[in-house]
Design goal:
With 91 residues, the protein is α+β, with helices and mostly antiparallel strands. The chain has 4 helices and 3 strands; from the N terminus they run βββαααα. It has a 3-stranded antiparallel sheet, with helices on one face. This is Reverse transcriptase RNase H-like domain-containing protein.
C-alpha cells in the first residue's frame, strides 16, 4: 500500500506485486476536514496510513503487506520516546 497526504487531501493505492512489477488494485482519495488540516505533517502522514488501512481492511486482513511512504520521520516513529499521545496510539 502506498499513501500520500497534502495540506488539502490524502490518497492511497493498494498495489499487487507480480513479477517484480507493482499493479494498482484500489485507489482511494479524500479531502481533509478543517480539523485535520491543522495537524502537523507527521500527524497527517500517520492519519493517512490509519485511514487507508481502515478502508483497505477487507483486502489486507490476514495478509502480509508493506506500507510505502515518502515521509522519512515515520521510520523512526516507533522508537521515539516522547511522542504525543495521538502518535503513540496510531503507531
Amino acid at each position: 500500500m502506498a499513501k500520500d497526504v497534502s495540506d488539502i487531501g490524502r490518497g492511497a493505492v493498494l498495489l499487487q506485486e507480480h513479477q517484480e512489477t507493482r499493479h494498482p488494485v484500489v485507489y482511494l482519495s479524500q479531502k481533509l476536514i478543517p480539523q485535520e488540516r491543522n495537524l502537523s505533517s507527521i500527524e497527517k502522514e500517520c492519519l493517512a496510513i490509519v485511514w487507508a488501512l481502515n478502508k483497505l481492511k477487507p483486502y489486507l486482513w490476514g495478509q502480509q503487506f508493506t506500507v510505502l511512504s515518502d515521509h522519512a520521520p515515520l521510520r523512526w516513529l516507533q522508537t521515539m520516546q516522547n511522542t504525543n499521545a495521538r502518535l503513540q496510539r496510531w503507531a
